Structures are given as structure tokens and as C-alpha cells.
TrEMBL record:
<dbReference type="GO" id="GO:0005524">
    <property type="term" value="F:ATP binding"/>
</dbReference>
<dbReference type="InterPro" id="IPR027417">
    <property type="entry name" value="P-loop_NTPase"/>
</dbReference>
<dbReference type="InterPro" id="IPR003593">
    <property type="entry name" value="AAA+_ATPase"/>
</dbReference>
<dbReference type="Pfam" id="PF00005">
    <property type="entry name" value="ABC_tran"/>
</dbReference>
<dbReference type="InterPro" id="IPR043926">
    <property type="entry name" value="ABCG_dom"/>
</dbReference>
<keyword id="KW-0547">Nucleotide-binding</keyword>
<feature type="transmembrane region" description="Helical">
    <location>
        <begin position="421"/>
        <end position="442"/>
    </location>
</feature>
<dbReference type="InterPro" id="IPR003439">
    <property type="entry name" value="ABC_transporter-like_ATP-bd"/>
</dbReference>
<feature type="transmembrane region" description="Helical">
    <location>
        <begin position="454"/>
        <end position="475"/>
    </location>
</feature>
<keyword id="KW-1133">Transmembrane helix</keyword>
<keyword id="KW-0812">Transmembrane</keyword>
<feature type="transmembrane region" description="Helical">
    <location>
        <begin position="531"/>
        <end position="553"/>
    </location>
</feature>
<feature type="transmembrane region" description="Helical">
    <location>
        <begin position="640"/>
        <end position="661"/>
    </location>
</feature>
<dbReference type="GO" id="GO:0016020">
    <property type="term" value="C:membrane"/>
</dbReference>
<dbReference type="GO" id="GO:0140359">
    <property type="term" value="F:ABC-type transporter activity"/>
</dbReference>
<feature type="transmembrane region" description="Helical">
    <location>
        <begin position="559"/>
        <end position="582"/>
    </location>
</feature>
<feature type="domain" description="ABC transporter">
    <location>
        <begin position="78"/>
        <end position="321"/>
    </location>
</feature>
Length: 699
């Protein structure tokens, strides 16, 4: 039997799960052997990257007495939450005075029950806390207070934010092209991408689409591994992983964690790796150098992972035989189900709180333990022996390469995402057919004066209005951008250029086909010049609405709120455009000045009206007369000026989009520094029936 060849390692109590993967294990071992052979060229390349980039320094990360509070969104003080109300404000304490360190060449695991603050600790260390949080305490990198430059560290977030239309291979390869320096050839980048994909055991899914809502693609566990692949492509010196093994079976978890833990060995650079993790198997647990065990934002244990069992045993909580130690730790400190247990045991309403007592014993014991003293000593030593400022030595693809790759990737995504353009094209064609039948063959009667304008106003306002239908796709796009941007994959300008250029062919297509139907069947001016002008105005309006929606997506990244905001803004601009209420009849305050001049609809209406009426004589009236006296069009400049204003507005909208993203990035650290400061005692009272006296450092 295969089990003879794969005996369960001693001390591993979760052997059943792994033995279920015996065959898989054998296959993976063979793959590992193949990888070992193939590693040589890729590893050489990785090494030379490092040498090219200069001397790589390891990163020592230390944190002392870190507190994080968040505004209480419910507004109500919940019974068991740690809510600060000493100064009248309601803030929930998420992290209560954590101290620890992470060293190069070591893997620090953060463990604890769900909601204990693992992700918050990772976010705090990585400088990614949300705007409703406040932090206090000292976080040092190589002994100094410094912000890590984009790209020095990588963060694998809990959610897998990926472009669902790409295949696994494409997602990783595009990312390699964006992140790896131009000194590497395309072939080398492809090799690195393929190597990393195999490292994460994704070779069989390389040509499978990632998939998402409505499209079945790779599994959740495979998505997790794609996210990890993308972030380890450049072998960052500081790597944060938020639950890297969620969704993975125990064998895959082991291989993934093993590859992550052994990143150092591949190129000889010592990496600092911090991972929050749920339910590690015994084998995975053995990969950890240090363990930080949290409960309700407090440290239960920090120290060598191998010392945790002894610490629990010495406090009266020995790990039962044949039980996975990590399961035992979590079970001992998880108090979420105490009430259920009480109900099951018929003790509801009594004072039985064994888990809370256990936690208090462990927290107190840890505080007074040698382990804690050792952490303080390490901290003191690390803060003096650090290597100073960390330079971002990671080479990037050039701006030019970033623009080209982002344009290509976005083009492919737009082509494959039905919701981006294709669905809109179908709806536009249907609406254009509707318009063509309603306004068919307008002729030259008196009524056609009004009908022509109604048709043109409908096309330039309502057809373009429907662009908001693409908003969900814009939001998904923005989410991927935000993840990649936070990890320093590319610049904001390159993204905006890529996004703009890639959309042009589709917008031309959706202007031309429905445009031709809605233009020729009603019998508008037939020359090519008039039709081309009409299409360019339609294209400009679509581009403007799309730019407006991208601006909205960057500010309001929520489907419903974004669509409501975008629709509201457009509705107001349409009203002020000068068709539904003529320019001279618009109320002067707000609607005429400034809105009529700001709303791009004014230039679209006036340009299209001039394009249609100029040169015509309808029911005895000249086109110029109709424009000036009926539609109150400003005739002091030509239709081409209206078009130029529309095209210029596209540039302005895109620059605004760029400025908002850049501004948000610049403002975030400022806002966080405003809200962070020396810890105040009143800010961190942890209301708890077993509360220990506050440490002095937290005052
Ligand atoms: N920005 C925030 N605003 C308000 N509450 C927050 C915020 N961030 C985290 N919290 C709260 O802090 C607690 C810890 O959250 P966190 O995500 O860090 O837990 P976790 O240990 O990573 O949980 P899980 O293992 O389930 O992912 C939770 O109760 C969460 O609701």
C-alpha cells in the first residue's frame, strides 16, 4: 500500500486528511523533483536580478505597544465588545497593545480565533488600515520609523481580487510583465511566471479562466494560489499573507506554505514573512519559526512556535495526545461558542466562563513569562542593529512597458467581459432600431424641425446615459487596480492611459453601429462628413460618461451607490444641457451659471444641431434661423469648436480621474498620521470582566 511509502510523520495528528491525498502527494513530489531541475535557470535569473539591483538588505520589522481602535458603526455599545467610552466617543478596541517582531529568514504565523484581529495586525504592520481606524504605538522597520516604498513589500489580501476573464497563465504572465524589470527579456519573464505557477501547483489550470460571477472558472483554493503567485513573482523582501491557505486542502496547504517558507532558499536572500493562518496542519505548523497567538486583540503567546505547546501545558492546558497542537490552542482560546456550550450543558445564565478564564490565565502568564522578556530583549536589540532606511531596489517595468501591457490586458478583459461592452452594444442596437422606427423618414415638414432635435438630444443623452450599465465592470476593474497599486505593480498614470486606450476601439464600435441605424433610417443629413461628425460626437459623449463613471467608481466603489450617483450627476447635466429647457429659459442661478456651461451635453446638443440644421431649409425656414431662434444655439462659433470642447473635456475628465487616485494616495498617509498619535490611556480602556490593569506603556 502507498501508506507504507508515505508514513504519517510522528506527532502529526491530522494524518487522515493527508493520507487521503496520498496519490496527490506522490504526483506533487514528482512535480517538486521536476521543479528542482527547472529551478536552476530561473533561480540563476532571480539571483542575478538581485545582484543587478545592488545589495539586498533584509527587513527587520518591530512593533511595540500597538493599539488600533475603530469607530463603532452600530452606534450602540455591545455587551461584550471592548468599547472606549471614557472620553464620550464610542470606539471599539481591535488591537490592545501588541508587541512583537519579524526577522529576515523567518516565517511568523499569526493565529487566533476568527475576529481576534489577525487581519488588523497585518494591515497595521503593512500600513493599510481603513480610514475609520486609529492606531497608536511604534512600528519600526530596520530600527527606524519609515514608510515602505511601493514595491518593497507585498501583501496577499484575504479576498482574491483578480480579473475574472483572464486565464491563470495570462493573469500571472501579465503581472510578471508589469512587475519585473525591463532588464529581463519577455522570455525570461514568461519563464518566471510559469515557474511560479508550477511552484503553486497550478500547472494543470494554466489555461483555465479565473472566472467569477456567472462564469465558472478555477476553484476558490486555486484563486488563492493565483493571488499568491502574483505577489511572489518578484520575491519581495517583506511578504504579508492574510490567510494564504483558506480554501486549500491540507496537502495543498502544506505545499503552498512550504514553497512560501522556502522562498529564501531559492536565491539566498532572507525574506521576512508574516502570515495569518487558520487551522494549520501539524506539518504546516512545523514550518513556522515564530507564532503570535491572539485573542480579542491581546497577545496570548508570542515566541518560537515550538515553545507554544510547552507554554500551554505549563499553564494547565496540555495538548491531548493525537491532537493537532494548533487546533488545541484555538479551541482553548475561542470563546465565541461558550454560550452555545452553556445552553447544551443547561448552564445558560450561570457564571460559567471557562474559556474567558483560560484566556486571562494565558494572557497574564505570557505577560510575566520569560518569553515576553525575550521579545522585549529582541526588540531592543533589533531596533539598534537594524540596517537603517530600506531602499526600494526592486526594478520595475518601464512606464512605456506598463502602458503597453496594461492596454493589452485591459483590451483582452473588455473583449471577454460581456458586461463591459457587448451587452451595451446589443441594447444600443435595440434602442437605435427603436429610434429608427419611431423617427423613420422625418422628411422636411414643420414637425421635422422638432423631431430632428428630439432624436439628436435622445441619442446624445439617453444612449450615452446607458453607459452606467458598465459600472459593475468598472468597479471590478478598480478593485484589481487598487490591489495592484497598493503592492506597487505599476503607476497610476500608466493605468489611466491603459484604461483609456483600450476602451477606444469598443467605444468606436458602439458609436458606429447603433449610430448608423439611428442616423440613416430617420433620414438625417446624408453626407459622409455629417455622419462622421455625428459618430465622433456620440463617441465623445460615451467616452465622457465612461470617464465620469470611472471617477465615480474611484470615489464610491459600491455598485448601488455608484450607479445612483452617476445617474444623478448625468440627470442634472442633461437638464442643464439646454434642450429640455432652452438656454435662455434656464434659471440663471446654478442651472445657467455655471452648470449649462459645464455640462458636456450643451456642446453635444449644439454641435449635433449645427451639424444637422446648417445648410438645410425646412418648411421655409433656414437652418441658421432655426438654430438661432428656435433652439437658441450659440452661433458665434462652428460645430467643430463644440466637438473640440467635447474632446478636450475627455482629457479633463481623465486628468480628474488621475488626480483623484493620486490625491487619495497622497492624502491617506496624511489622514492616518493625523489620526495616529501617542497612545492615550482614555483611548484604550478594554472593558472586560477579567480586565487586567493597563500596562504603563499604553497610557
Ligand atoms: N475598519 C474596521 N472598522 C470597524 N471594525 C473593524 C474594522 N476592522 C476590523 N474590525 C473588527 O475588528 C475585529 C477583528 O477583525 P479582523 O478582520 O482583524 O479579524 P480576523 O482575526 O482577521 O478575523 P478572520 O479570521 O475571521 O478573518 C472584528 O470584530 C472586525 O469586525
Amino acid at each position: 500500500m502507498a501508506s507504507i511509502n508515505h508514513p504519517c510523520p510522528p506527532g502529526a495528528c491530522d494524518y487522515e486528511a493527508r493520507h487521503n491525498f496520498r496519490a496527490g502527494g506522490r504526483r506533487l513530489e514528482i512535480e517538486t523533483a521536476t521543479l528542482r531541475v527547472e529551478e536552476t535557470t530561473t533561480m540563476k535569473q532571480m539571483k542575478s536580478d538581485v545582484i543587478d539591483g545592488g545589495e539586498e538588505k533584509g527587513i527587520w520589522l518591530t512593533w511595540k505597544d500597538v493599539w488600533v481602535t475603530a469607530s463603532n458603526t452600530t452606534g450602540k455599545k455591545k455587551k461584550k465588545e471592548n468599547i472606549n467610552n471614557a472620553n464620550g466617543s464610542r470606539r471599539k478596541t481591535i488591537l490592545g497593545g501588541l508587541t512583537g517582531y519579524a526577522k529576515p529568514g523567518e516565517l511568523l504565523a499569526i493565529m487566533g480565533p476568527s475576529g481576534c484581529g489577525k487581519s488588523t495586525l497585518l494591515d497595521t504592520l503593512a500600513g493599510r488600515l481603513g480610514s475609520n481606524t486609529r492606531q497608536a504605538g511604534e512600528i519600526l522597520i530596520n530600527g527606524q520609523k519609515q514608510a515602505l516604498a511601493y514595491g518593497t513589500s507585498a501583501y496577499v489580501a484575504q479576498d482574491d481580487t483578480l480579473l475574472t476573464t483572464l486565464t491563470v497563465g495570462e493573469a500571472v504572465y501579465y503581472s510578471a510583465q508589469l512587475q519585473l524589470p525591463d532588464t529581463m527579456s519577455k522570455e525570461e519573464k514568461r519563464e518566471r511566471a510559469e515557474f511560479t505557477i508550477r511552484e503553486m501547483g497550478l500547472q494543470d489550470a494554466i489555461n483555465t479562466r479565473i472566472g467569477g460571477w456567472g462564469i465558472k472558472g478555477i476553484s476558490g483554493g486555486q484563486k488563492r494560489r493565483v493571488s499568491i503567485c502574483i505577489e511572489i513573482l518578484t520575491r519581495p523582501r517583506l511578504l504579508f499573507l492574510d490567510e494564504p491557505t483558506s480554501g486549500l486542502d491540507s496537502a495543498a496547504s502544506y505545499y503552498v506554505m512550504n514553497r512560501i517558507a522556502s522562498l529564501d532558499r531559492k536565491d539566498g536572500i532572507q525574506r521576512t514573512i508574516i502570515a495569518s493562518i487558520h487551522q494549520p496542519s501539524t506539518e504546516v505548523f512545523q514550518l513556522f519559526d515564530n507564532l503570535c497567538l491572539l485573542s480579542s486583540g491581546r497577545t496570548v503567546f508570542f515566541g518560537p512556535a515550538s515553545a507554544a505547546s510547552e507554554f500551554f501545558a505549563s499553564n494547565g492546558f496540555p495538548c491531548p495526545a493525537l491532537q493537532n497542537p494548533s487546533d488545541h490552542f484555538l479551541k482553548t482560546i475561542n470563546k465565541d461558542f461558550d454560550d452555545n456550550q452553556d445552553i447544551e450543558l443547561g448552564l445558560a445564565g450561570t457564571q460559567r466562563k471557562p474559556t474567558e478564564e483560560a484566556i486571562e490565565i494565558l494572557v497574564k502568564s505570557y505577560k510575566s513569562s520569560d518569553l515576553n522578556q525575550q521579545v522585549q530583549a529582541e526588540l531592543a536589540a533589533l531596533s539598534t542593529q537594524g540596517n537603517g532606511m530600506v531602499e526600494n531596489q526592486r526594478g520595475h517595468a518601464s512606464f512605456h512597458t506598463q502602458c503597453i501591457v496594461l492596454t493589452k490586458r485591459s483590451f483582452v478583459n473588455m473583449r471577454r467581459d460581456v458586461g463591459y461592452y457587448w451587452l451595451r452594444l446589443v441594447i444600443y442596437v435595440a434602442v437605435a432600431l427603436g429610434l429608427a422606427t419611431v423617427f423613420y423618414d422625418l422628411g422636411m415638414s414643420e414637425e421635422s424641425i422638432k423631431d430632428r432635435a428630439a432624436l439628436l438630444a435622445f441619442v446624445s443623452s439617453f444612449i450615452t446615459f446607458m453607459t452606467i450599465g458598465g459600472f459593475p465592470s468598472f468597479v471590478e476593474d478598480m478593485k484589481v487596480f487598487q490591489r495592484e497599486r497598493l503592492n506597487g505593480h505599476y503607476g497610476v498614470t500608466a493605468y489611466v492611459i491603459g484604461n483609456t486606450l483600450s476602451s477606444i476601439p469598443y467605444l468606436l464600435l458602439v458609436s458606429l453601429i447603433p449610430g448608423a441605424i439611428a442616423y440613416y433610417l430617420p433620414g438625417l443629413q446624408k453626407t459622409a462628413e455629417h455622419f462622421i461628425f455625428f459618430c465622433i460626437v456620440l463617441f465623445s459623449c460615451l467616452m465622457l460618461v465612461e470617464s465620469l463613471m470611472m471617477i465615480v467608481a474611484s470615489i464610491v466603489p459600491n455598485f448601488l451607490m455608484g450607479i445612483i450617483t452617476g445617474a444623478g450627476l448625468q440627470g442634472i447635466m442633461i437638464l442643464a444641457g439646454g434642450f429640455f429647457r432652452l438656454p435662455n429659459d434656464l434659471p440663471r442661478i446654478f442651472w445657467k451659471y455655471p452648470l449649462h456651461f459645464v455640462a458636456f451635453h450643451r456642446y453635444a446638443y449644439q454641435g449635433l444641431f449645427k451639424n444637422e440644421y446648417e445648410g438645410l431649409r425646412i418648411a421655409g425656414k433656414s437652418g441658421e434661423y432655426i438654430l438661432r431662434n428656435i433652439w437658441q444655439v450659440n452661433m458665434s462659433y462652428s460645430k467643430w469648436v463644440d466637438l473640440a470642447i467635447l474632446l478636450g473635456s475627455i482629457v479633463v475628465y481623465r486628468v480628474v480621474f488621475l488626480a483623484i487616485i493620486k490625491g487619495t494616495e497622497k492624502m491617506k498617509p496624511l489622514v492616518s498620521s493625523l489620526f495616529s498619535g501617542p497612545p492615550k490611556r482614555s483611548n484604550h480602556i478594554m472593558v472586560n470582566p477579567y480586565a487586567t490593569p493597563l500596562q504603563e506603556g499604553a497610557t
